[in-house]
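# nightly structure sweep
# worker-07 picked up a monomer target from the shared queue
# config: single-sequence mode, recycle default, output format = structure tokens
# input follows
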Amino acid sequence: PILYSYFRSSCSWRVRIALALKGISYDLVPVNLIKDGGQQFSAEFKALNPMQQVPALKIDGITLCQSLAIINYLEETHPNPRLLPQDPKKRAQVRMIADHIVSGIQPLQNLSVLKQMGEKKMEWAQNCITSGFQALEQILQHTAGRYCVGDEVSMADLCLVPQVANAERFEVDMGPYPTITRINKALLELEAFKITHPSRQPDTPAELRA
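# output follows
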């Protein structure tokens, strides 16, 4: 497999965690979203992913884009360890939390949107994340065990940790979100989350390295 990734992309980080948890080795091709006006806009990368976004994963003779589509494919082709619970209610909760983050928070504060916001980009990002986290904190109080849904790492957790990293980068006060904070801390102790961290990627700038 070949993963096209950017060290700071939360969508790419989700996929890196899934690959690590499932023990799938891959080659990483960095796509710098800022350098040269954004390498994702090159003709070469547009041919790979017409949406001009990371991640993209070449695997088993196909190219997949969109992080949850990639993670679902990995789940179906490499079922262990499981990232979706067997219980239909828990599985629905996992998908609900993942969608809450990947549809309801992250796209509103990603690079392409922030570019449009000019001087207000910090305030905009904080507002988007805060409103999303207020809802997420309430949801997790009903679903969480050690992790987002019960005590097993799931697709929801793969979405949570990168989004908390975004919140910290945009200086969001995490005080009102004790459940999110507790789960994030527990997940960051796991090896798959450590080795895939943005501070430990081949394309991480020297000043941001762990």
